Hints:
By secondary structure, this protein is of the alpha+beta class. It is built from eight helices and 13 strands.
Amino acid sequence: MTQTEASERGAGAVPRDDLTLELVHSEHDARAAVGVLAEVWPRVGGKEPLPPELAWVFAHSGNYVAIARQGDVPIGAAIGFRGEDEHGALLHSHITGVLPDRQSLGVGYRLKQHQREWARSHGLDRVTWTFDPLVARNAYFNVVKLGARLTSYYVDFYGPMDDDINNGDETDRCLVTWRVNSRAADAAASGVFAAADVAGIRASGGVEVLGPDATGAPVVTTSSADLRLLHLPTDIVDVRHQDPTLARAWRLGLREVLVPAFADGLEVVGVDRSGWYVLGRPTT
């Protein structure tokens, strides 16, 4: 779960000498980290997204809990824990957030790079997390700005949630897999960001399997091609506010396309700023 990606463009970034990123080493700092996340993910009744004592237990037991400060003011936080799947050990990044008025300053990018270095220093070659794949700007951040890939699709993964962002919607999620030693991750960490070349991919045989019709409604096309293109609304949050029925149609259309694509062994390997996703075979 992330809310770091809204406008991570680097321009106007917080100066390096004004931003500190550090691991949490006290109950007080764990509480401050959760306080930031509660502002990013407000819940009904003012509930916190996780108990501060749990965040402290994670930190105390050797998991990843970090806080970002601008001067002395906490402005971002990230919490993750070690896990294991069929491919081996990993760090699962459970929740990351940057205060809304700091989300255009590059803080989220630097938090994730801090998390990457923690994983590498602890012998872990993957970081995973989930996000709503309908939010195209977040996919751009994950795939282009970090060099990660989208590798699995989970239908209504969290079940009902009562925060202001997810309330009332099914919580379909994509799994982000960040192979922290990959060439893509290295390039992104060096500031080299490669957005998808949609025209070139079309010329190479890429097939559009999801896109809008003249009314803005989703149209699904079946294909078994190894290169597939999806074109999503650039701002699904606005669509949800204006036309919830249309937003749900996009949810179901994306589900119909991505579930079989991931089952076929494809990953989302490219994204561009206008809402195009590229599905292809994974490479190192």
